[in-house]
Amino acid sequence: MTAMMAALFGGTAPQWQSRVVPVPEPGPGQVLVRARAVSLNNADVQQLDSSASGTGRRREYLAGYEFAGDIAATGPGAAGVHIGDRVMGITQGAFAQYVVAGHRHVMPIPESLGYDEASALPTGLLTEHGALTRARFRSGQSVLITGATSSIGLIGVQMAKATGAAHVIATTRSNTKEALLRQSGADSVVVTDGQDLTQAVLDATGGEGADVVLDHVGGQTFADCLPATRMDGHIVNIGRLDGPQATIDLDALSYRHLHVRGVSFGFSRPEALGHVVAAAVEEVMPAVADHRIRPVVDSVHAFDRAHEAANRMRSHQAHGKIVLIVP
Question: What is the Cα–Cα distance from 169 to 141, expressed in whole angstroms?
Fold first, then answer.
């Protein structure tokens, strides 16, 4: 008899639809994970809403991207992993009781972490570490993180501090979130609704600007980051919450000899993503194990209440990750 599992599908209705489907089998280089918890990302709800509105392709898809659980089976050539290992990772189609992922795309879960917290880590951990790596970040440098109260941004604040940043500057639009940012490790907080971002960063860095900028906002904020970055500094765009378009000052870019990069690891080739995962495991997992880096979980929902989790994401009131517990 074929083993069956519950899974959440999008593409044909305003909310994810639960269906019972066959448990997949891991192929070469893959692992089958019995998921215990999965986490939402903005892209999950954006894809769902795009399909439901008719602006996207109305084709059914297995939803989700981020998961944590136990390895239930391994495919040929899946090295370094074993049945029973607790792992977290990323893959397309994670909102299911059983998830197939590349063996190089999963990470061990430290004993100090439960499945709910572990499921809230992979995207932020890989994105922020990958961005810092591309920015050639070194201990002792200053780091500016825009949109820092997003779930990924909060990981970035903690990671920068845990890996030796001398001064972490975090931005938010609301002064009610300043305490959250300082608890996460920010040395300075810029409330952009009432402060000039560029001037505030220059003031915090003795007029030099930040060595490294991790921008989660895009739009005009990205443009404002250029004159807030020191000579020969690095800017990495990660998110575009304010939109994908920005009008930049080319004089600031050129005269300050700035290095500008963009990252989106969800679109990386499997081999490249494997290298990102391996580097994160080696360089920042110890900080996860001793709680210097810890995800902020906003809320936890039952798997069959996924619509409530999606609505929480749509509300833009979440402070941290939204998690589904998989039965």
Answer: 11
Q: How far apart are CA 111 and CA 89, in angstroms?
A: 16
Please give the structure tokens belonging to residue 53. 């509105």
Give the pLDDT confidence of 206-236 residue by residue, as tens digits.
999 999 999 999 999 999 999 999 999 999 9
215: tokens are 């921008």
Within 10 Å of residue 293's Cβ, how many Cβ atoms? 27
Q: What is the pTM of this model?
A: 0.91
Domains of the chain: 4-121+295-325 (3.90.180.10), 125-265 (3.90.180.10)
**With 0-12 CB in 10 A as exposed, 13-18 as middle and 19+ as buried, what is 211?**
buried
Question: How do residues 94-110 score in pLDDT, each as one tens digit?
Answer: 999 999 999 999 999 99
